[in-house]
Structure to design on (351 residues):
């Protein structure tokens, strides 16, 4: 917060609302209206007050504003423990993008430790609403049967989810990345290079995100008239588990693998090296998430980059709209990832 100084250089207290009123030649209530209800003022008066605010670098005290508006301008976000793996930082990147855009809108993100079981997370919401007067929440890691959207919706608490609810009836506002579009783009890329036996290395069935990415691979393979029989293998998001799961594909003539995450793709790298094969030369590999490790691997990993900056801005926009219009129709935004081609899938078949 900027401070004014005396002629001798001694720092004074921060500018006050009363000082702004004196500078602008208006009442303190007029300054308050300029900050909270500018439409009540004549344009010339509003301009004069805003000029005084800028000249004095006046910053309204947040606690006082909260008392007046009954708004904390805080958005709650539950930080969940994630398993080890190169895809973990994706949620950190999203949170940074969302925090930046929320900050630009005058809000702060309040982090809290979410319980391991998302079904228990509403208890944290109730405590934050009671003790911190949190205005809204942002959710992530949504899944089928997720109780959090329904809990918040029932209580008319604004929220937005990064991730679809994966149910027939969508509840609330959400922004998501189109995983099916991404894996289909990966298949199109590999087919253009001459690959025909393109496998999918994904998570066990039942994961909304994982099933969506598998569906994109399946649809694209069928669109190109290619068989998918015995070409899908699954593993938890763990490098060693992925290595063991994908190893059986290589003796059957598989020439390319699309993985549901960069962690799984790294397991594919290890399985290829265990069998004396080289990623990119003998078998093409495409990951998902474009983690920081993707460009550092040798060979560098082709991967699908999620538009996290755009996701963060969209989440903020939807959340502010919901805060301003609690009864409005929920909005859903689906964004396409971008295929980043690197050494692991740059060569045509046989080169």
């Amino acid at each position: 917060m900027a401070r004014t100084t005396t002629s001798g250089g001694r720092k004074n207290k921060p500018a006050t609302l009363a000082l702004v009123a004196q500078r602008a030649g208006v009442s303190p209530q007029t300054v308050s209206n300029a900050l909270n209800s500018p439409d009540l003022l004549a344009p010339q008066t509003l301009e004069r007050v805003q000029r005084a605010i800028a000249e004095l670098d006046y910053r309204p005290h947040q606690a006082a504003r909260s008392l007046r508006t009954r708004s904390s301008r805080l958005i709650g976000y539950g930080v969940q423990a994630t398993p080890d793996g190169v895809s973990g930082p994706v949620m950190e990147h999203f949170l940074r993008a969302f925090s930046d855009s929320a900050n630009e809108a005058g809000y702060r993100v309040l982090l809290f430790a979410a319980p391991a079981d998302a079904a228990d997370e509403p208890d944290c919401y109730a405590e934050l609403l009671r003790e911190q007067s949190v205005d809204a929440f942002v959710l992530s890691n949504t899944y089928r049967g997720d109780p959090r959207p329904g809990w918040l919706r029932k209580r008319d608490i604004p929220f937005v989810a990064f991730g679809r609810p994966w149910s027939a009836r969508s509840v609330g506002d959400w922004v998501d990345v189109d995983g099916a579009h991404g894996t289909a783009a990966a298949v199109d890329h590999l087919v253009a290079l001459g690959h025909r036996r393109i496998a999918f290395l994904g998570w066990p069935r039942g994961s909304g995100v994982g099933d969506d990415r598998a569906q994109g691979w399946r649809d694209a393979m069928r669109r190109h008239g290619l068989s998918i029989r015995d070409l899908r293998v699954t593993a938890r998001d763990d490098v060693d588990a992925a290595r063991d799961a994908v190893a059986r594909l290589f003796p059957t003539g598989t020439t390319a693998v699309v993985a549901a995450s960069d962690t799984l793709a790294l397991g594919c790298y290890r399985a290829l090296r265990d069998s004396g094969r080289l990623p990119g030369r003998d078998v093409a590999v495409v990951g998902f998430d474009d983690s920081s490790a993707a460009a550092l691997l040798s060979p560098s990993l082709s991967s699908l980059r999620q538009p996290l900056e755009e996701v963060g801005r969209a989440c903020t926009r939807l959340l502010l709209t919901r805060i301003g219009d609690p009864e409005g129709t929920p909005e859903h935004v689906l964004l396409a990832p971008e295929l980043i081609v690197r050494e692991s899938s740059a060569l045509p078949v046989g080169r």
User: Anything to note?
Assistant: The chain has three domains: 17-60, 74-177+308-336, 179-305+339-345.
